[in-house]
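Most newcomers find our protein records easier to grasp once they have seen one. Read left to right, the backbone structure tokens trace the chain's path through space. Once this layout is familiar, the rest of the handout is easier to follow. The record below serves as our worked example for the rest of this section:


***
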Amino acid sequence: MHLFGDEIEERLINALNLVHEWKVGNASVGETRNASLGAIAVARESSNPTAIVVARSVGYAVATAHMADHSLGAALYALKAIKNAGNFIR
């Protein structure tokens, strides 16, 4: 999340908090899906390439609540965020 920028968009924070609530049974799959779509909306609204892929990573991570395969998208976009930010893993 620190790669998103100085001010982290509230919808991203809310999405991550909601998926934790889903994990313990306090949120529905529908709620997590809507939060995921909110994170993807943040990506569409951004012009910063790194912020875009961070938001997409969050969106896919939260979408894992309704489809496990979305975890692959979360990982892919997280790696793109690291690459875009110039932080290469050695």
In short: The CA atoms of residues 36 and 63 lie 6 Å apart. The mean pLDDT is 83. DSSP finds four helices and no strands in the chain. The radius of gyration is 13 Å.
